What we know:
Layout: H1 2-11, E1 23-33, E2 39-49, E3 53-60, E4 64-68, E5 72-77, E6 82-87, H2 94-100, E7 102-105, E8 108-113, E9 116-122, E10 128-134, E11 140-151, E12 169-172
Parallel strand pairs: 6-12
Antiparallel strand pairs: 1-2, 1-11, 2-3, 3-4, 4-5, 5-6, 7-8, 8-9, 9-10, 10-11
Amino acid sequence: MRLLSLLLLAFSALSANVELPENFQADFTQKITNTKEKVITYRGKVRFSNERLFKWSYKEPTQKEVCSNGLELLVVDHDLEQVSVYRISNGIDIAKILKKAKLYSENIYVAEYENKQYTIQVDTKQKLHSIAYYDDLDNKVQIVFKHMKYGKGNLPTQSMKCNYPKNYDMIQG
């Protein structure tokens, strides 16, 4: 689950020259390449609101939702009918990440946070385009965003929650 918390941290790693929106919504493709060059590709939608709330809705190859409020991470695996709850040990400190992000080249920023280096690419309108980094297992992780919509204000709280039937198994991580 450290991978998921790192993904959440990476979203916040934009330089002060690139404004972090109050909210955004996008389609995403996430490619994870292991050390043997085996690739697994996930697709879905992501929502971000008020600097701490995230919701990833994975559609392919499995149906899963990942939600966070900056302190807890909730993973709902609909295929397994299972919900896992994890504590994020240090929370998400957006201010620290923003201070560490630096312009590397045109539209590319680099940030180091908790001994991880993140490469963030923005489009010509300075909107988030992709994030890449290596996870704790030396997997290369690349997330590409399409149909990015930046907005003002918070997204509705209910739309940021992971929903699941009461009969799913609950695991505390």
